[in-house]
Amino acid sequence: MSNSNHHFETVVIGGGQAGLALGYYLAQYDHDFIILDASERVGDAWRTRWDSLRLFTLAKNSRLPGMSFPAPDDHFPTKDEMADYLEAYAERFDLPIRLDTTVNTICQNDDRYVLDTDSQPVEAERVVVATGPYHYPNIPKFAESLDPAITQLHSSSYRNPDQFSHGDVLVVGTGNSGGEIVVEIASTSRRTYLSGRDVGDIPLPLTIFGNRVVNWIFSWLTGTVLTTDTWAGRTLKERFQGGGDPRIRVSATDIRRAGVEWVPRVEGVTDGTPRLDDRRVLDVDGIVWATGFRPDYSWIELPGLSLDEDGYPVHNRGVVEGEPGLYFVGLPFQYTPVSALVRGVGRDARYIAERLLAAGDNEPRTRSHQNVSRMED
Questions:
Q1: H or E stretch including 129?
Q2: Using CB atoms within 10 A of its CB, is residue 149 exposed (0-12), middle (13-18) or buried (19+)?
Q3: What does the UniProt keyword field contain (predicted)?
């Protein structure tokens, strides 16, 4: 164990579900690690989402390793319930988290990594980046040319319909966030538009998702068939990278029943108003850009890290082969379609923990006959 408060065997950057799941496994062993997070409280990334947000998976499937979600199996947790669950999770397993700590850069000094933070540098033998896939709002450049009188919000800044006047509202992006937000705004009797290619709905009977058979089938598909090791999994990953994820809870039928007008893609601006692919212009008072996020790993100043064409790290199940000692957890489709979700992040966290622990002499703290390859989920 390190005797320094700024030198550790492993530093985990990010105290969300990915970092906490990894911490759960590392905490079972005599491993010297710390989790750094920029938030004031564990779970704040969820607390700042829109007011009515609920998870797209049931409570039964919204758990991290070692701790069930404290709600009935058929309950869709609210964003605040998930935030409180993550905070309780960190407390239950006494995970070493340093909050209010932003990592500005990672560089290498001889045989160790140096992390520049707002307070003091932190050194580590290994680093795991668990900052998730949501870095910077992805808003088209032409949005700057829109009339300043139009209220523009990215989905990450949207809280409720009261942020807009009583005029018309356009939601751009047809995935889960866009679908749920546009239906909520439409319920306030405003004229609403939804712009973009329909990404489709997942034909999954979520009302019976707690059923053992359905749950087993889903687990089998995401655990065996749809992984980056298989042709089917790689094909699905390419499809996800090419557009938004399919909607889970709000369907195209629900959107149209709410009175939403579905319009083509927004391609630009004419006289300060949004212009569609069909050359039509929309006179709206508000826009929600449910257009996702773009990654930014420019703060990782390591020569062995390469980025793909979408800006994400090149890796093998979270292991950066060109930069030994650097790992990732919580990337989109890191290994399966649910890698970035609460439901699926535990598997990837366990895999990375195995790699970390195999690199050192680590013995279980509380289990006398447990080895790394048999970690409990």
A1: strand 122-129
A2: exposed
A3: Monooxygenase, Oxidoreductase
| pTM (2 d.p.) | 0.86
Say whether both 174 and 275 belong to one domain.
Answer: yes
Q: What are the structure tokens assigned to 337, written together?
A: 């379609």
Taking alpha carbons only, the member of 296, 263, 300 closest to residue 278 is: 263
Range of the domain at 334: 7-135+295-374
Same domain (yes/no): 252, 333: no
State the DSSP H helix or E strand holding residue 80, giving kind and residue range, or none if neither. Answer: helix 79-92
265 has a pLDDT exceeding 90: yes
Decide which of 365 and 143 is more confident: 143
Please list, in sequence order, all residues whose beta carbon lies within 8 angstroms of the beta carbon of residue 58, skipping any fewer than 6 positions away.
73, 74, 75, 76, 206, 209, 210
Same domain, 161 and 304: no
29 Cβ neighbours under 8 A, 6+ residues apart: 357, 362, 363, 364, 365
Write out pLDDT tens, residues 8-64: 999 999 999 999 999 999 999 879 999 999 999 999 999 999 999 998 888 888 999
The identity of residue 280, as a single letter, is R
Same domain, 47 and 153: no
